[in-house]
């Protein structure tokens, strides 16, 4: 194992936070909802955004999908 792989493994095990986004490897970003059928509703940012330093997403994206008109809540 290379020294870099060993360092990374130790950092991951310790739960260190990324200095840029503040997340640990076990954390997910803040939850945001995306409504596929209603683009103007819900989260308006880029759900595929990643931290430039660690590559983790600052968001935990929840896609809201309706399975028929009868189950859709009233606006």
What features would you describe in this structure?
The chain has 1 helix and 2 strands; from the N terminus they run H-E-E. It is of the alpha+beta class. The protein has one domain. A two-stranded parallel ribbon has the order 1-2. The protein is elongated.
How would you concisely characterize the structure shown here?
This protein is an alpha+beta fold and 75 residues long. It has 1 helix and 2 strands.
Strand and helix map with partners:
Blueprint lengths: L2 H12 L15 E6 L23 E6 L11
Parallel strand pairs: 1-2
Quick tags:
75 residues, alpha+beta, 16% strand
Q: Sheet with the most strands?
A: 2 strands, parallel
Quote the beta fraction.
15-25%
pLDDT average, as an integer?
79
Order of strands in the sheet with the most strands?
1-2
Number of strands: 2
């Amino acid at each position: 194992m290379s020294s870099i792989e060993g360092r990374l493994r130790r950092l991951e095990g310790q739960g260190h936070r990324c200095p840029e986004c503040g997340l640990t490897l076990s954390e997910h970003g803040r939850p945001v909802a995306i409504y596929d059928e209603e683009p103007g509703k819900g989260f308006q940012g880029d759900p595929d955004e990643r931290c430039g330093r660690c590559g983790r997403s600052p968001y935990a994206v929840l896609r809201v999908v309706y399975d028929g008109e009868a189950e859709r809540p009233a606006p």
